[in-house]
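Re: that chain you flagged

S.,

Sorry for the slow reply, it's been a week of failed gels. I finally had a moment to sit down with the sequence you sent. For the record, here it is as I used it:
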Amino acid sequence: MKAVTYVEQDKIELTDVPKPTIQEPGDAILKVTLSAICGSDLHVLNGRIPGMLPGSVIGHEFMGVVEEVGPDVKERKPGDRVLSSMMLPCGDCHMCRKGEGGKCANLRVFGYGSFFGDLNGGQTEYVRIPEADRILHPLDDTITDEQALFAGDILSTAVTVAVEGQIKEGDVVAVIGCGPVGLFAIQAARTFKPSIIFAIDSVDQRLEMAQGFGATPVKLGEQHPVMTVQNATEAAGADVVLECVGGGGPLNTALELVRPGGRIAVVGVSSLEDFTMNLGMVFVRGIDIKFVGTCNVPGIWDRTLEMVKDGHLQPDSIISHRMKLDEALEGYELFKSREAMKVVLRP
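Prediction finished late last night. Pasting the structure tokens below so you have them in one place:
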């Protein structure tokens, strides 16, 4: 079968790999119907997430139809149309028992290499799914593949950061970064009825989409985000900032944007070990900072999918390129160059 596989840092290839088989009693074999290229796949590719082995299949956003199940699988059966979670919490550790699977001590992630369970990913034709009863979400005919796909990762992540922002009706919200997660965070934030959402980015296409979702665009390099927000709030600042980029620069911008006593929810992935932050300012101004961490997808995807069905989220609206799996390498180039907002692949 065809699959996008890791070769070495900054190099992947489309190649033939063996079709997976049942290895554990709780496994299922999923026939992939749709997958996507995610920004985190680029982190794997460029070495920011180490441990990817040559020949491993990449990709953690995917869905499909169950083809085969192991003897211990009771809730899923061949023919079921399902969405896969990008992550597999163990279900047994202290944090999993507390319902916080994103902080699982034994967390595994599809297509993330040896440090995250060494599981082959979903940019292929078939995937082995461990613990299928917990990791596969059944789908009905009221939701399309393109509407459901991102609830397995970035859409649920965006809902989580909006929830963790504790947005109240009438709040001023600023979203830093209008990539796919940021755009979905804007959609999710709107459900809390803020008075305004500022969308901060440097890319025109992203800002245009953010504006289409009801946000007020702020273009970096042409507008100063802190001054823009302060001018609109009588110098108070934003009640809530959702940081969707990662790294010290965006977080420090968030600290300048937020009002005294405000809240910052951070979902941008950062590989920096340290950076300079003015802790005195954080203390004196009473700023609440929440690092969201890895999204507990199975813990929130019911809520996410209901928001899609209710029309509050429009996940398919950010898909810019629909391509065949055979075109995946071209899709990666488009995504890396920011010519594509979101690429989905069909086998």
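What I noticed first: The chain has a mean pLDDT of 95.

Talk soon,
D.
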